[in-house]
Amino acid sequence: MTEPSRAVPPPFAAAVPALKLRYLQGYPAELLAPVQGLLADKKLHALLLRRYPERHTVRSDKALVDYVGELKAQFMKSAPPLAKVAFDSRLQIVHQALGTHTTVSRVQGSQLKAKRELRVASLFKDAPARFLRMIVVHELAHLREREHGKAFYALCQHMEADYHQLEFDTRLWLTALDLEGPAAP
Predict the structure, then answer these.
(1) Residue 60 in domain
(2) 24 within some domain
(3) Percent of the chain at pLDDT above 70?
(4) Which of 13, 69, 134, 135 could cross-link with 166 by S-S, CB 3.0 to 4.6 Å?
(5) Tally of domains within the chain
(6) Of 85, 155, 163, 158, whose CA–CA distance to 131 is shortest?
(7) Which residue segment(s) compose the domain that 122 sits in?
(8) What is the DSSP letter of 143?
(9) In what order do the strands lie in the sheet with 82-88?
(10) Using CB atoms within 10 A of its CB, is residue 120 exposed (0-12), middle (13-18) or buried (19+)?
(11) Which residues of 141-157 are buried (b: 16+ CB within 10 A; e: fewer)?
């Protein structure tokens, strides 16, 4: 009786289990294989920082309010106003929340008043500039489109032409932070 043949996986496949790639779930294996190789060699973070070397100056809630306001004025003039914009250290990356857009409703007399808030994970204070823009564009798109559908992503691409690539690269950056830690200066 002969044993069934077993395919030998590439050397880096076992180095980074798929379970560790939580931000990249749903992407095809052929796209993730090079990523796993970079992670095994601890080179993913450095590669992303070479690709996105520009830093932003948005470090405070006030600066974030101005940044979001500029993007909103440029692309979404008729969207409802935002009552609050802030970095939020409580957003849990574990729960896949990098930013949130919420509507807080209150009864005032006989009327129902809604206030909209936009929060960005504090982690993005130290992110490349394009990653912060991608998160803000994503949350601003929720002002018009609640669900992640075709119209939502079309609006994201209207505000940021490279939206899909930036979203993928942001996911790579988060994975690198998880598995490699912050990049050395």
Answers:
(1) yes
(2) no
(3) 78
(4) 134
(5) 1
(6) 163
(7) 29-180
(8) T
(9) 82-88, 111-121, 99-108
(10) buried
(11) bbbeeeeeeeebbebbe
- Token pair of 180 as six digits: 């490699």
> Hey, what long-range contacts does 77-82 have (CB within 8 A, 24 or more apart)?
79/140, 79/143, 79/144, 80/114, 80/116, 80/143, 81/116, 82/116, 82/117, 82/118, 82/143
Residue 4 lies in a domain: no
pTM for the whole structure: 0.80
β-bridge mates for residue 121, sequence order? 88
Question: In 65-84, which positions are buried (b, 16+ CB within 10 angstroms) versus exposed (e)?
Answer: bebbeebbeeebeeeeebee
Does residue 23 sit within a domain?
A: no
Nearby residues of 163 by Cβ (< 8 Å), 6 or more positions away: 134, 137, 153, 156, 157
pLDDT tens for 45-82 read 999 999 999 999 999 999 999 999 999 999 999 888 89
What are the tens digits of pLDDT across the range 104-124?
666 667 777 777 888 898 889
